[in-house]
Amino acid sequence: MSSSYVRIFDTSLRDGEQAPGASMTSAEKLEVARSLARLGVDVIEAGFPAASPDDLAAVQSIAAEVGRVPVEGRLQSDPPIICGLARCTRSDIDAAWQGVRGAKHPRIHTFLATSDLHLKHKLRMSREEMTAKAVEMVAYARTLCKDVEFSPEDAGRSDPEFLHQVLAAVIKAGATTLNIPDTVGYTMPDEFGALIAGIIRHTPGAKDVIISVHCHDDLGLAVANSLAGLRAGARQAEVTVNGIGERAGNASLEEVVMAIRTRGAKIGLQTGVDTTQLCRISKLVSRSTGYPVPPNKAVVGANAFAHESGIHQDGMIKNALTYEIMRPQDVGATHTTLVLGKHSGRAAFSKRLTELGYPLEGDALLKAFNEFKKLADRKKSVLDADLIALASDERATVPELWALEHLQVMCGTAGLPTASVRLRDPDGKIRSHAAIGTGPVDATYKAINAIVDLPVELLEFGINAVTEGVDALAEATVRVRHEEQRSAHGHGADTDIVVAAAKAYIASLNHVLSRQSTGRAQHPQSVPTEVSR
Fold this sequence. Notes:
CATH class of the largest domain: Alpha Beta
Largest sheet: 8 strands, parallel, barrel
Strand order of the largest sheet: 1-2-3-4-5-6-7-8
Oligomer: single chain
């Protein structure tokens, strides 16, 4: 194995599952284990077998299936190491061995605290007693399994000299991997890097075993500390998918792996992880634990490859490297998303319309963009269906003879539904009227009829939510008939369903009027309709 190779030790099924409310069933753990094997992790810490009969059974099933033969899709020729955690007691170590012994490559991982704080208040042991216990249990574990990992809990707050003594003693007892945990996420990256470098330099036998790092995120430094430890000489990183785990969680697998890959020239390390599967396993673990992935989560969050700022979107359109340091395909995301919102620019708006099959240019594009900005001020996220509705309005060929300037309605269980409407007529004058109806739409239509004075028969009326949510854009469709003419239709879109209905009705009236030669002759200055104002 190359000296630059970093083993990825995933503890999502053990430390990750210890997050409050994140426990998984045996079936869920097996499914996650299969995905971890396909991902290409080197070690799967399948659980804490002494914790419960179900945890023991889950570890046994993972060892028997995932730990026996390579899972389909795994790039490595060998199955991963299957590891079980144990306290420094014979009963725990026996349970761990019962859990992992069915694997091709089993490992027992045992731990005991080394910080004076833990020795005094939790273990009530002297340094000498702690060292003797660790040596005894590592030696016992080694009689069962040739691969034994030892962790000095709270190493980040332990006296370095004492830590070196303990680690040297457990190496002699048979430990093959020394895991150095920053159990409470206390150290700074420079401190943790120095801790790892000191262990390698001052611990007899340290260069003959694998040094591992296990960092918690209490100060948001788990990934930074892990990378600092790896750069100082550690060659195993203990991580979890999505960074789940005790308290603020662990170092995130996807962040550590992508930092190593993306900054390879700087870090000079490599892993065996198939990064194109990162998004998929992130979703699986989120679903299995019930822990949602924050949108702004690095690498796998919904916004990791999303851009709303107009400046950023313009740069992305010209060259993706301007604002993305990795390709979405590298982590299994489908594509970069230019999120259209109030910060977006015209370039991204036009590009997305063209992709949707609704290209606009010139004044039509400008008008649609202005309407988009108004909509974006009212909605948190403007979706493709919203854009299609806006573009459809601007592509309409019916002249805008009458236009809605203002609408106010009053309705409810008390009183009569009333609508006050203000329209701009074909000559540019403002006309107003108020009416009462059986409902807000009926009152609105009666007020419009009183102003326009065009007798029509309402044949069809429909309204649909273009998108989901309480701030959805509503699209209204209306079909009317005037005298003996064939029917005319109109549609309008707005976040207010009554406003959308009014726009659709006015559009249908404009459609009727546009067919009348007298209307065309009288109003040559008419401009293309814009019913989604």
